[in-house]
């Protein structure tokens, strides 16, 4: 969802800036967020039992599928959570991935404009290209991960570690390589696109691992890891700006 939203919003932002004014980017997307809130309140339910439009067969299927995975414990086991090494491993992975994600998200349009000299329209569309690749990779990597686990008998731990490794090392290699190609437009866009695309493997790595280690509390675990993982969104672009004065 985040990647697909970026694919849509970056080109639209470029067009809005070109034909209107940059302030309308915030007005329009803010209004769409409020509009979506009304749909969310009408369509979403807390549990399958309280859903207003789900069929009886689908409700029973979901409940039976989750019966053996969900905990019946009412209180949240905060202490065991915070003492869990697998949870902190996810925190480190999530933090590391988001450093690249947020830095590129905020500074890629600047790189496209000031270094590669693309105009507003080209900037929006080309800045969206890496996230389109990432969106496709997320879908494909999920299918590959399930195939390896279900058909090839790879362990869940092995799949999660391998996909996280690909989603971390691959982007790092191509992002570093992009820094050595100067102003070669085609290679710059290609390397950044490949880098961001390979990051999609992390979704079938550390990202889904919240459900593996604690299905009943996956939402809480994601809240914990994502709280740490938003820190790069604040400090990453600032550090990148200070490192690239020219």
UniProtKB/TrEMBL annotation:
GO terms for molecular function: transmembrane transporter activity. The chain crosses the membrane at residues 22-43, 85-105, 125-142, 162-181, 187-208, 220-240. GO terms for biological process: monoatomic anion transport. Pfam families: MFS_1 (PF07690). Keywords: Membrane, Transmembrane, Transmembrane helix. Residues 1-246 form the Major facilitator superfamily (MFS) profile domain. Its main location: membrane. It comes from the Eukaryota. It is a multi-pass membrane protein. InterPro entries: MFS, MFS_dom, MFS_Na/Anion_cotransporter, MFS_trans_sf. This is S17A5 protein. It comes from Dryoscopus gambensis.
